Amino acid sequence: MLGEELKRPLVSISQLSELGGKDILIHTQAQKALNTIDNVLLYKQFSTGQMALNFEPVHVGSAITEVVAMMTPQMRMSGCWSEINIQSSLRPADIDRRLLNGALLAMWQAVVQSMETSTKIVCSAQRIPKGIRLSVMSKGINLDNLLLSATNMSSTQPISSVAGPAADLLAASGMFDLVGSKLTKSRKKDMSGFGVTLRTSKQIQLV
Amino acid sequence: MSAKVLVIEPGVSERSTMVEALAKYEVTVVASAGDAINAANDANVDLVIMELSLGGHSGMEFLYEFRTYADWQKIPVIVYSSLRVDDAVLKSRAWQQLNISDYLYKPASSLERLKRSASKVLG
User: Fold this and answer.
1) pTM for the predicted model, two decimal places
2) Which residue in A14, A93, A125, A139 has a CA-CA distance of 20 to 30 Å to B121?
3) Measuring CA to CA, which residue among B57, B31, B8, B52 is closest to residue A145?
């Protein structure tokens, strides 16, 4: 799964080098490949117990800001930009900080790779009765194609070898599963994407 | 008049590099199998260059559908894919029936190689 998906940015790096004078694009593609490796590896490390989950109060806003900063070059390359809506006075989530950052990065990268038109990607965090609803959505995403790719990739049928870019989505979904949250389809007006409900921390954050 | 080439490529970056490499042709680019059928219908293409590993419906599904239409059975198709296709598959009857003009394994084929192949196929 990872091998097939990594070929894409690496082939792109090779092609860009062949054409010459594309340093920023080469860097962005290399970063995309590294992110995918990191996301899948992090999921494997958590799921096999190589890394222990450390639940603590984490402000979702800080994780979003960090991830958006990392994803900005990729978004620019796809002609996309971000809009962040974080509800004021949002309580921290009770989650492992590394897992949240990794899963959010994976979720965001999956959305960027599935964008079919250049438009904004909206990330929002809002209080709901069950906790905090975190979602990444856009008008430009082809959600059905991405979900079909994920189904193909996670199946044991031969067709899995012709799946599209869904490794990041599966990594994000797996990581959220580990903390008892479910990554689901999310829709709002004409936007679609993914969302997850995180448990709110009962502790007061001291920092 | 330059030949019309339909490129089916899901990767944003690969799309732009391929368009740049194939600049001497009139290139239409799509990302998915579904859009490719519509584009082939509208653009009256002379050559299709495609990735097999697409999001959603696979490139093989597109090929089978594409070849079912009488008008499109003779349009040359170059498979330019990051998916490695076994020699046994390339020699198989099923593959031959799809009438693929050339198969290029992306990680081992430069854009120059793709340009040569397109040039050869289009005469």
Assistant:
1) 0.75
2) A14
3) B57
